[in-house]
Structure formats: structure tokens, C-alpha cells
Amino acid sequence: MLELNEIVHDLATALKAVDATGPVGRSKTRTYQPGVGPLTEAAALQAAYSYLAQTHPDRYRTCAPRELCDMTLEDDWALEAKLIRPFGDNGKPAEHWSENVLHPYPGNISSIGDCLKLVASKLCKRKAAIVFGYEHTPAIVSLEPAVQSFELIARNVLGIALGARQHAFTSGLIHPVHQQLHVYGWEVHST
Known about the structure:
Blueprint: H1 4-20, H2 41-55, H3 57-60, E1 63-64, E2 71-73, E3 77-84, H4 99-102, H5 111-120, E4 126-135, H6 144-157, E5 161-162, E6 166-171, E7 180-189
Parallel strand pairs: 3-4
Antiparallel strand pairs: 1-2, 2-3, 4-7, 5-7, 6-7
């Protein structure tokens, strides 16, 4: 069975590989600059899962998104992932970007809401919350305060039993704003 640190590092590798292909995201009103950074959370994760299934079929052969969580690895892992990026494709600040990890209410689509859902879930043997996000090189707005705040709220306010933080970092992405990537992961233990 894969360990969470392996999954986090593999996801970072996969997102960088997807970035190198120059994917172009689109909204209803515009086309974004090439790179994995502007892709929606769902599009980035789907591309990364496809890459992992192709390059590591022995490790990710059942790397499948499910209705109840973002990804499952056989019956071993149920994974929930959230995207954070302090700046948009155009380089302007994204006003509400940290809400994706910090909103502390059950049923909310934040990482904390995901943790609460995972704790209550009967999915898989192990469960994890993953946060992936982009910064400038060097970071103009660091992701670290939002990530530390997530940990404090989850553990100290809501009593969620998070495992040790796993982290992978890569730089040299092709987008002029989303130049470096952090992938964080925490095992979520049922209490």
C-alpha cells in the first residue's frame, strides 16, 4: 500500500508533468494562459490522475474519482483535494482564495469540510486531505499561513485528528503567475 508521502510527491510530479504539456484552461468568457496553474481543481486533478495511471499503473491502477470523494486508491485510500492560489491567471489577487481551506463548517466544500466528511465516512481503510497550490517565484503571497491556519482550525477548534503534514514542492512551471507548486497532505484519522 502506498504511504501518503508517496502520494503527495507523485501528485506533485504529475502536476508538473501536466504543466509541461502546456494545457490551456477556459472559462465561459476567456481562455487562460498555458500551464496547469489556471486549470480548475477538477481539471488539474483529472489530468494528474490520468498521468499517474499511465506512468505508474502498478501504483495507481484504480486511481479513480468517485462521487463521494475526489479520488480512491483501491480500498486503501479515500482522498479529498483542494486547490488554492492567491492570484488569478491575470496576476490580480484572488480575493477569497483561502476560503477553500479554512471555512470551518460541516457540509462546506473547504478542506476542513472535507476532513469532517472523511471522519464520518466509511470509505477506504485510510483517508487524507490534500491541498495543492501555486505561488510566484519567489512567493509574493506565501501559502504557508493559510496551511498553518488550516491545521490549527482542524486540530484545535474542531478536534480533527490530523496526521503529520506531508509536503512536496516543485518550481519551474510555465505559467507567468503560477510558477511554483506546493502539495500538502494529512492523514485524517477517525476519532
